[in-house]
């Protein structure tokens, strides 16, 4: 047995069984440069999944490496929030300003799950209720509380949760009972559902709604613009708080906006973030209105939250995003990718939906007649793209959505090469099938 196969066996022996890996023969990434990674066996890939949207600038970014190295060389890797940490405060000030939430405050943690956990704690404390509204097909994390607001049961191992959640219709239009409606009628039907759920399934003291502007794990399900504005009008009638989970949609990835929720022209009470901010280094947080952020009275500490190394990486990453206007770049390259994927979809009947915004692009596979999800085809495309040198993601309620979310630095040439691989892989797999 080769070294690589042995490593896979060791993984299986020491990790819990549910910790699944991509690919029949899982990849060990050995190095990365820009938007490309090389595995331990020397195969090179264009990376259209960027970790899981974690490496938003790509790999080996000199500015980020230098910022971290400076911190390491200074010898200050303590990570206690008991002292002033200059770069943490500066990062918080920048994120507060970027949030466009008036007088915003920021609390740093280490992951998206923790960020949502903190936001849920604040909202439930503020409203003295643990009743939450979430969307069907949502994903908000793998912790005890966040699983309780995760509508995608495939990703929620426990039904025992500290929150009391009701789920409402999401913007996952393809499988919505309102799928054939116009945008306006679709939004109106979802708002009716929201009103109905609040009126008939809650005690009238809902604390908050938590929602992803574009559902990430749920297969990049994208509601029409204005969807959440209509929701918020209903929530405001009863003082229900709104938390936008920007873990996947933040930092300009959606192209037209810096935060996903801005496509809906509302200011949320809080936003949660993680993934891309540290370009691979663990950092997450909550940014919100002061009255939201100050709603917990007990002193609460995150030992590693906002530590000097993570905040140094995050600051350098954020500088890069704004200095290079990666939001506009995501818009431009995203449109190019979208058009390319649409052209491929026109030739392949098994592609039943292409959706997303900016550099978040979902391709749903299924039966063009009855829309039956084709999970097998998605798995085959995943393998076939890998064989040809492209890494993509998988997702959706049925695991039948190919997800593309490359680094925001993706060049047009890389987009073109990736599209060519995708077209070739999809054609080969579809030919095998028919
Ligand atoms: N929210 C969203 C929208 C996510 O996509 C994820 C991760 N996939 C999380 C929260 C949880 O983040 P983490 O894995 O960093 O805990």
UniProtKB/TrEMBL annotation:
One of its GO terms (molecular function) is alanine-glyoxylate transaminase activity. Pfam families: Aminotran_3. Signal peptide: none annotated. Its cofactor is pyridoxal 5'-phosphate. Keywords: Aminotransferase, Pyridoxal phosphate, Transferase. Its EC number is 2.6.1.44. Homotetramer. Belongs to the class-III pyridoxal-phosphate-dependent aminotransferase family. This is alanine--glyoxylate transaminase. It comes from Antricoccus suffuscus.
């Amino acid at each position: 047995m080769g070294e690589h196969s042995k490593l896979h066996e060791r993984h299986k022996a020491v990790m819990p069984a549910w910790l699944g890996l991509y690919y029949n023969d899982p990849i060990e990434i050995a190095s990365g440069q820009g938007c490309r990674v090389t595995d331990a066996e020397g195969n090179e890939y264009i990376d259209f999944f960027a970790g899981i949207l974690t490496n938003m600038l790509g790999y080996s970014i000199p500015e980020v490496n230098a910022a971290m190295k400076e911190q390491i060389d200074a010898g200050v890797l303590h990570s206690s929030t008991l002292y002033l940490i200059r770069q943490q405060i500066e990062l918080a000030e920048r994120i507060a300003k970027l949030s466009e939430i008036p007088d915003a405050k920021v609390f740093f943690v280490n992951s998206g799950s923790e960020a949502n956990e903190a936001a849920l704690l604040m909202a439930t404390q503020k409203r003295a209720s643990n009743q939450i509204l979430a969307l069907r097909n949502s994903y908000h994390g793998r912790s005890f509380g966040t699983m309780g607001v995760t509508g995608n049961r495939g990703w929620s191992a426990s039904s025992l949760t500290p929150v009391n959640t009701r789920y409402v219709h999401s913007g996952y239009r393809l499988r919505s009972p309102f799928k054939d409606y116009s945008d306006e009628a679709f939004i109106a039907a979802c708002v009716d559902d929201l009103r109905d759920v609040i009126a008939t399934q809650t005690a009238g003291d809902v604390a908050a709604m938590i929602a992803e502007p574009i559902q990430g794990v749920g297969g990049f399900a994208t509601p029409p613009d204005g969807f959440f504005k209509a929701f918020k009008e209903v929530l405001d009638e009863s003082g229900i708080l709104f938390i936008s989970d920007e873990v996947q949609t933040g930092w300009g990835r959606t192209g037209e906006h810096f935060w996903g929720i801005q496509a809906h022209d509302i200011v949320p009470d809080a936003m949660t973030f993680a993934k891309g901010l540290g370009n691979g280094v663990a950092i997450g947080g909550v940014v919100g209105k002061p009255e939201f952020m100050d709603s917990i009275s007990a002193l609460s500490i995150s030992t590693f939250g906002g530590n000097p190394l993570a905040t140094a990486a995050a600051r350098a990453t954020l500088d890069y995003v704004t200095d290079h206007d990666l939001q506009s770049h995501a818009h431009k390259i995203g449109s190019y990718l979208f058009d390319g994927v649409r052209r491929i979809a026109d030739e392949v009947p098994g592609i039943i939906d292409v959706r997303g915004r900016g550099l978040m692009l979902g391709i749903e596979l299924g039966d063009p007649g009855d829309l039956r999800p084709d999970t097998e085809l998605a798995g085959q495309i995943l393998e076939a793209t890998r064989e040809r040198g492209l890494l993509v993601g998988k997702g959706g309620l049925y695991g039948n959505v190919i997800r593309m979310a490359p680094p925001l630095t993706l060049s047009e040439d890389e987009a073109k090469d990736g599209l060519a691989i995708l077209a070739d892989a999809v054609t080969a797999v579809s030919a095998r099938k028919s």
